[in-house]
Known about the structure:
This protein is of the alpha+beta class and 819 residues long. Helices cover 45% and strands 12% of the residues.
Amino acid sequence: MGMTTPPRTLAEALRARDDESLAGLLRARPDLLSPVPNDITQLATRAGTRASVVRALEHLDRFALQTAEALAVAPDPAPYDTLLALLTGDGQDDGADRDDAGAAIRDAAPGALATLREQALVWGEDDRLRLVRTARELLAPSPQHPSPTGLGPTVAEATSGMSPGRLQEILVAAGLPATHDPVSAVASLSALFTDRTRMGELLDTAPVEALSVLDRLVWGPPYGEVTPNPTPPVKWLRDRGLLLPVSTRTVVLPREAALHLRAGRAHRVPEPLPPAVVALATRDPQAVDSAAAGQAFLAVSTVEELLTSWNGGGPPILRAGGLSVRELKRIAAVLDVSEPIAVFWLELAYAAGLLASDGEADERYAPTPAYDDWTELPVQDRWVDLATAWLAATRTAGLVGGQDAKGRALSALGPELDRSAAPEVRRRVLALLASLDPGTAPDPETLLARLRWERPLRGASASAGDTTDLRSRIALWTLNESELLGITGRGALSSQSRALLDSGPAKAAALLAPLIPEPLGHVLLQADLTAVAPGPLERPLADTLSVLAEIESKGGATVYRFTPGSVRRALDAGQSAADLHAFLAAHSRTPVPQPLSYLIDDVARRHGHLRIGAASAYVRCDDEAVLNEILADRRSATLRLRRLAPTALAAQIDPASLLEGLREMGYAPAAESAEGDVLITRAGTRRTPPRTPPVPVPEGPPVPDGTLLGAAVRAIRAGDTAATVVRKDADSTPTAPAGSLPRTTSAETLATVQAAAMTGSAVWIGYVNADGAASQRVIAPVRVEGGFVTAYDHTADEVRTYPLHRITGVAELADAEDA
C-alpha cells in the first residue's frame, strides 16, 4: 500500500488528489455537485458523462482546446513528448517564425495540460496521458463529425473492413514486401507513412497532379468524392494507400500520411498565446470620466422621462407578451431616439424593476412602486442601480427584431430574450477594458478576437435558433450599451465604472457624484411661448414644468413649449391661474412674457366652463349658447348628445370618452363628482402592485463558495471511505464489500460495538431506517447505552445516533496489512 502506482482509471486518479485539487475540480465544473456525489467513483462517472464533458470543453480557451484535440488524435495513452510533437511539429519545416512559435507552444503546453487535468478531462502521468473517453469521442474524427484538427482516421481504422488481397496490392504498389497477415500489412503501411525518409521518397515519384490532390485534403476535410473511373492522379494515390476508400464514392487521406504532409502538426495555426487587445485611441482620463458622467446623467434622465410618460398608464401588452411595433415607434418618438435604443431603455427599466405589467384584465405596462423610491435617490445612486441591473441581466435587448426558433418575431419586453451567457460576456468585456491603461479605447475587432480565443466553442448558441457567433454579438452590444449607459466615455472605461467592478456600488457612486452637474432652480422664459432649461433642473421644478409644458428638444439645454393643452393639463391637476403665474415668476430669470400670461388666463377662463359627469354622462353649462354650438357641430354626432334642459346635455357614452371628445373639438371641459365638485387629475398616480425585478436565467449551476466546496469534498471523501473499505467476515477473512448487509445476532452486535467504542476503532454495519431503506455504513462508536449507539459516521461525515435494534449486523474492518 505504500508503493506509488500509476492510476488505472479516472476514479483512481481523482482518489489520489488532495482536497484542494478536488475542490478545484468542483469549482471549475460545478455541474458535478448537483447533487453531491456519494463517492469518488460516482464523481468520476459523472465527470465522464457527455453533457458534463461538453460543458467543460465549452469553457476551455483555444490552446487548451487545441491540446485536447491533439490528444484526441494521438495514441491512447500518449506520452507528453508525443503530444508536444503534435502541437509543435517535427521541426522539418522550421524557420525563424516557426522556432518562435514552437518556443511559445512549449512554454504554454504545461499550463494547458494542467487545466485539462484540473478539470478531469485528462488523467495519468506524463508518460501515459489519457483523454477521457467521452472527450475523445467528441473530438476524434469520423465521417459524420470531422475532427477540428482536419485529420482523418488512422490507417488501421480506415482499412478495418478491407480484404487481405487489396491490402497486398497496396503494399506492392507502395514498394513494401507483401504479407498475408492483415495486421502486419497495416503495421507496414503505417510505418511507411510515419517514416519521413521513405515517405519523402514515395512522394518524389508522385505525379504533380497527385500532390495537388493531397494539398487540398491535407488540412481538412480529409474526405473526397471519386468517380467509378478515377483520374490517373487519384488512382495513383489510391493504389498506394495514400487515399483509402470509405465507401464506393468516398476516399479519405489517412492520418499518418496527413501528419507527414503537415510536418507532424495537428493544427495549421496553434494559438498558445491570447491575442492582445489593441488600443484604438488614447484619451485624457479626466475627459473620459466627464463624458461618461454626462452620459450617466442622460441615462438616468431618459429612464425617468420614459416612465414619466407612462404615469397615467402605459401601452397594452400583446397577447403573446411584449410591446407592439406601433407602441415601440411611439416610445422612440417620445424619447427622440432610434427604435433599437428605445428597446435598450425599456429593457433596462424592466431589468431594474422600475417597469412591469399591472396585472389587470386589460393588461398594460406601468411604473412600479419601486420607481417612486428610485426617483428619490441622488442621481449617482440611481445610475448605480441601473448599471448593476444591466450587468446582471440575462435579457438581451439586441435580439429584438429578430426571430425565435419558431420563426416568430422577438418583441421588446417579450419572452425569449434571455441569454444566460450575457452577464458573463458583459463582465469579461469590461474586464478587458479595465486591463488597458486609463483613457484607452480598444479596437473592437481585437477585443472580439480575444473573446473568441477565450471561449472558442461558446460562440454559437443552440437556444432560440441562434446560428451566428452569439458571444461576439453580445460583446458588440455591450460596447454600445456601455456607452449609452455611461459605463464608458468616448470608448474608454471610466474611473467610476472601474470602481463599480472592483470596489462595489458605494465607491462608484462616490466617484460619480462630483461629476454630476448641480441641478438648477430656474429657467429662461422666451417670448415665443418656450422656456429654456440651461441644465438639469431640481426635481420639484422639473416635475411641475413637465406637466405645464411639453418638451420640445433635449441636449445640453432642454426647451419646453407651453401649449393650450399643456396649460389645461396643469389646471386639471389642481393648479389655478394664479398658482401658475406665481410659479413662473418665482422660477424664471427673465420676465414672464405677456403672450404666456395671456395663454394661461385664456385657458383658465374657459377651463371648467363645461362640466362632465355621470348620467351615462352629461354636459352642464350655464351658457346656453355654448351648448347650442356643441349640438350644431357635426363633430358631436359621435357623442350622441341630447338636451335635457337649457343648461344640460345627456350623452350615451362614458364620461371619460365624452371628456376626450369635447377636448378634441377644442373645448376645455372639466370632470365633476356626483356632488358637483371638480375632479382633480393627479399626474403619476398609476402604479403596478409591488413587483420583483425579473430573475436572470442562470448559465448552469452557480459556482459554489468555499464553505460548500469544503463540505462537498468532506462528504465525497467520507462516502469513498465507506465504499472502498475492506471488512472481515465472521471467520476473520478479509473480503471486498458485499452487496448484502452484514448479519449478526443482537448479542454479537452489542458486544462488537461496545468493544469498538472502548478501542476507538471503526466497524462496518448494516442499517435499516424507519422507512425501511437499507444501507451499509462505516462508523466509529463513541458511546453505547440505552439501546442506542452514538458514533461518528464516516459515510455521512457527522456524529449520529442509531437504535441497536435497527442494526442488522456488524463486521470488523480489515487491518491495513490485510488490505
